[in-house]
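hiii, so i know i said id send this last week but things got crazy w the move. better late than never?? heres the sequnce for the chain we talked about at the cafe, plus the structure i predicted for it. fair warning i was half asleep when i ran it
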Amino acid sequence: MNNTLELYFFKYCRYYSNEVVPEPLEGDVFNCIVPLGPQATPEATPEATPEVTPEVTMQAERVKQLCKFCQIPRSSKEMQAHIKIKDNEYFRKFILRPLLQEKILKPTIPDKPTSPNQKYYSTKEKK
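okay and structure toks below
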């Protein structure tokens, strides 16, 4: 093994195996056992929940506002201004596109999705 490779091998073996030193087997052959860490559980951890909850709550509130606002067809600019988002790309990617995919909003001109006259209306009933 060349010196640089050997240096990296020892460095990363120690790093990933919790300071276990690689064992020489024969000549240039080494054995390094990297223990597996605890498996991640599908449930949210208590530490992550407080960070996620405000964002999810804010997103749900935006959807509710847009559904109410779009009872009559509105342009994307009008919707963006209504929920006070300035970044066009963010609005398209993370707000408008998911609402269209989930069929919460529908386009007024479905055959021309990029039309400058495109408007969107809510499919939800008024409450």
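btw The two ends are 72 Å apart (CA to CA). thought thatd interest u
miss u guys!!
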